[in-house]
Amino acid sequence: MEPLDSHDLKILKILQADSSINMQDLAERVNLSKTPCWRRVRKLEEQGYIKKYVALLDPKLLDLTVMAYVQVTMVKQDLRTLQKFDEFVEQSPMILDCNSTAGNFDYVMRVIARSTEELESFLMRDLLNVGLVQTTNTNLILRQKKNTTELPL
What topology is assigned to 66-141 in CATH? Predict the structure, then answer.
């Protein structure tokens, strides 16, 4: 993989802020002509620096107003249990992200719901009912102070 130069980094920074920018405007902002800029974007996509383009939605407008961090301790640490848990996480749309951690818990998940009742139902009927989880600790997020998908470049 070729190292990134200043043009590549500028392209990535701009696309993180607005992936819907047209190629002409992007080229102008990074001081390139349109075709070389397009080639660089394609190269960044092919090399995996750009994984995909998405629309970031406003959860409040979609009535998704309850968010929590759920810390999970597994019943067992064997491969079969972890694979089943991974499958559960992948198929659960309420889980926004899930991270394996070192410390008192095996995983920390960020979960979103329409209400505290829906969150409770997810925890009791879905997560704990799977039979893979020994304990959970849930921290309700009162107000989100910062939320970004932009990586520091």
Answer: Alpha-Beta Plaits (3.30.70)
